[in-house]
Amino acid sequence: MQNGIRLAAVDLGSNSFRLEIGRLDHGQIHRTEYLKETVRQGSGLDEARNLTPEAMQRGWECLARFGERLAGFRRYQVRAVATQTLREARNRDEFLVRAHQVLGFPIDVIPGREEARLIYQGVAHLLPQSEERRLVVDIGGRSTELILGHGYEARVMESYRVGSVAWSMKYFPDGQFTPTAFNRAEIAAKAVLDEALDTYQRDAWDVAYGASGTVGAVSDVLAAGGFAPDCITREGLDWLLDRLLKAQSVDRLKIDGMKDDRRAVIGGGVSVLRAVFELLAITRMEIAQGALRHGVLYDLLDREQDQTDLRTTTVQRLSAKFDVDAAQAQRVGKVAGQLFRQIDADDAPESMARNLRKLDWAAQLHEVGSQISHSDYHKHGAYILDNADAPGFALPELHRLSLLVLGHRGKLRKLNADYSDAVFVQQLLVLRLAVILCHARREPDLKGLQLSFTEAPAMQFSLACRAGWAESYPQSAHLLREEVLAWQKTPCSLVVPDC
Length: 499
Description:
Elements: E1 6-12, E2 16-25, E3 28-38, H1 53-69, E4 78-82, H2 84-88, H3 92-103, E5 107-109, H4 112-125, E6 133-139, E7 144-150, E8 153-160, H5 164-171, H6 179-193, H7 196-199, E9 207-211, H8 213-224, E10 231-233, H9 234-247, H10 260-263, H11 266-279, E11 284-287, H12 292-303, H13 310-321, H14 326-343, H15 349-365, H16 377-387, H17 395-407, H18 422-437, E12 450-454, E13 460-464, H19 469-472, H20 474-487, E14 493-495
Parallel strand pairs: 1-4, 4-5, 6-9, 9-11, 13-14
Antiparallel strand pairs: 1-2, 2-3, 6-7, 7-8, 10-11, 12-13
Helix pairs in contact: 1-3, 4-12, 5-11, 6-11, 8-11, 9-11, 13-15, 14-15, 14-18, 15-17, 15-18, 16-17, 18-20
């Protein structure tokens, strides 16, 4: 990306939604604008884990305001990510459809470990580089992320379902601060975080950093109370707990340095933070300036180049792990790419590059399920991708990739896919054609084969073959005729006039 370009990150957290806008300057992103709104979607999940209409409306209204500010941004300049609340919400698709419309950009629901990785990237890019081993802690509204890292590399990442909003709702439902409530909340948090003991033990890190909401709020209060700025100590946490107990309730809490939007969730946040300190033997935690949204901004830069895109590395790792036939994957990817360029030649260069990269990932992984079952390998491959730990990928991205793998062969009616998405349909069709043309597991003869595409009134593809091609390759011609029939059962169509 060119120096001076503006980039934006939208963080749909469980407690707050945030918009960070920055300008790129020689590899560094400098803030030009920051907006934050307390939306508290995390407290809007009902017993069935559905977002209430009120919680969805609060989110939509906030995103509409963010969307107005992002008017004029191109898609590759903006990334919006959603975390634990939308990972949990059963009706998240209902929320996301309208959220996409009002924001003007798609929203990625990211897995917990991917959230942790991005948090670390945000923290690391705003810290001086050093040889220290870092523990990064981020206590959000409904999840807590723990990361061990060195430099810019996050080496161990985990997300735990414990957070300030969830714990405040569960253990301080009436806003009452009692010793019993705090004791129960801390014990419950330790029970969730207990499995972190072995991995994040004290000799695994040199410096502990805290990021974002709860940690920042506690640090502000401690600084106002006379403690050292930009850090949290056990003594400070004890002092803060004593102040909360003396106040007895949220309504009676008057304490310097605490913003109004934090009062309702401070009980749960302090309980979780105290549990983290005790479990991991932390005596002092430094306050990091970076957070998830900053990691999203720097990840936008990495995603623009194949050599720095972590998703490419993840695809390579999965391919090696499941012993994919690399030669065949490369053949299929090459053919699919050639066909895709024929029908998408007028697209913007940056969009073309992104679409080709995602198509190539599908080609590299189309046989990833072969080690499980040969006959149904496409189904197993799709399951693997939908459930894989895949650093760099958001859940919707991974599911889209799994749909391409599932749909690269066999009947198309098994796909629960959006056939109005022209790019997805194009990728699916060229992938299927590439698999057909490479069925003999050798380089196919593509001379004279030309694919064309029309989008209106309905999507139609036409594959022209040179004279005599069908006679020279009868099996390929037969498979193409079968492919024509397969597409007749979708809203799209394929024509192969010379076969």
